[in-house]
Amino acid sequence: FQASDVARRSAIYKLYGSANEVHERHRHRYEVNPEIVSELEAKGMQFVGRDAETGERMEILELDNHPYFVGVQYHPEYLTRPLNPSPPFLGLLLAASGQLDAYLKGEELADDAETKLKM
Fold first, then answer.
1. C-alpha–C-alpha distance, residues 21 and 102, integer Å
2. What is the pLDDT of residue 90?
3. Quick one: pLDDT at residue 113?
4. CA distances from 1 to 4, 93, 108, 109, 114 (A)
5. Average pLDDT of adjacent 10-residue blocks, the chain of 119 residues
6. What is the pLDDT of residue 3?
7. 65 conformational bin, left if phi > 0, alpha if psi -120 to 50, beta if neither
8. Long-range contacts of 56-62 (CB under 8 A, 24+ apart)
9. pLDDT number for residue 86
10. 34 Cβ partners below 8 Å, 6+ apart?
11. Cα(70)–Cα(61) distance, rounded to whole angstroms?
12. Scanning 12, 28, 49, 109, which has its CA 20 to 30 A from the CA of 34?
C-alpha cells in the first residue's frame, strides 16, 4: 500500500488488516500509464496500492464517494475459500449486505439471515 493518508483510509487497506504489503499473484495483462495517474486521482480514482519494486505499477484502486468500488491487478480468487474469502471478496459481500462500514469500524455484525437481508 502507498504510504499516504488516502491509502490508510481506504476500505481495502482496512480489509487487509492494515498490512503494509499484500502478497498476491500479479496479473500481467493490463497497466496504467504512470503519466496520467495524477489526472485520474484528481477525478476520484485513488491508486492505494502500487508495486513495491518501482512504485510505478498500479496494483489496487478505489473510487472516491462509492460504497465499494475496488479494482485489483492480481488474482484474489486464488486465495479465496468458501468460508474464508480474500479481502476484496469479503469487502464486496459486506458492502452488498450493508455491513461494510460496521465491519471496518470493528462493530458486531448481524448473525442471522433475516437481519442481514434488511441491512
1. 24
2. 94
3. 52
4. 8, 22, 27, 27, 36
5. 79 90 78 91 92 84 93 87 90 93 87 55
6. 66
7. left
8. 57/31, 57/32, 58/31, 58/32, 59/22, 59/26, 60/1, 60/10, 60/12, 60/22, 62/10, 62/11, 62/12
9. 92
10. 56
11. 6
12. 12
Q: Is the pTM of this model over 0.85?
A: no
Residue 30: its pLDDT value, please? 78
Element (H, E) at 118: helix 113-118
Output Rg (C-alpha) for the chain, integer angstroms.
15
AA letter at 82: P
- pLDDT value of residue 112: 63
Closest CA to 50 of 4, 83, 92: 4
